[in-house]
Amino acid sequence: MASYFSLKTMPILALALALCVQGTLGGITCEHLNKDTCAFAVSSLGTRCVLEKHVRRSGEDVYVCRSSEIEADKLKDWIETDQCIEACGLDRHTLGISSDSLMESRFTQKLCSPQCYESCPNIVDLYFNLAAGEGVFLPKLCEAQGTNSRRGLAEIRSSGIVAPGPESGMPSNYMIAPAMAPL
């Protein structure tokens, strides 16, 4: 009887132990990351970590890692590898999260390269969503990269479908499905 009872409770005990160990180890918490691991990391809650610079009264620069409001798509507990940082043309000490770099042809060349685009899903997901926020479809931007990326970006921006504003006169049931990042 005792062995029957222990066989039934073993999976429950194992699950409880796994949850306790994870809670004890903590997973990734942005606020606990240092300057060299913060940028392009994803917390155990799935929020993206951002590096911020604060200047103390003494004039000293202090770098702090914080959780952003931006969530990663299907990623948790992720610190980006040095290989992906280099392949995608990024810098570990990047402050904040911005789509500005998408306007730089050198950056988009690296982002769209097979070494980055096919091997670094965290970075591709981040910039896919940043590009979508600017009305740009990242695969189209990468496709235009073969020609003139600035011109391609301008063309993509100007020809993209944009959801109507509240005063547009379009029917309220007009909807556009959100684009999904490539897998």
From TrEMBL:
Keyword NAD on entry: no
Q: Which InterPro entries match?
A: PAR1
Q: What is this protein called?
A: PAR1 protein
What domain of life is recorded for the organism?
A: Eukaryota
Signal peptide residues are: 1-26
Question: Which keywords does the record carry?
Answer: Signal
